[in-house]
Amino acid sequence: METTEWSATKEQVLCQQGILNPHPERVKDEFFAQHAFFDARDLVQVRYEMVRRVLVEGQPVGKTAAAFGYSRVTLYQLRKRFQAEGMAGLLPRAKGPRRAHKLGEEIVRYIEERLERETEMRMADLPARVEAEFGVRVHGRSIERALARQRKKD
Question: Where are the domains of the chain?
Answer without folding.
Answer: 3-90, 105-147
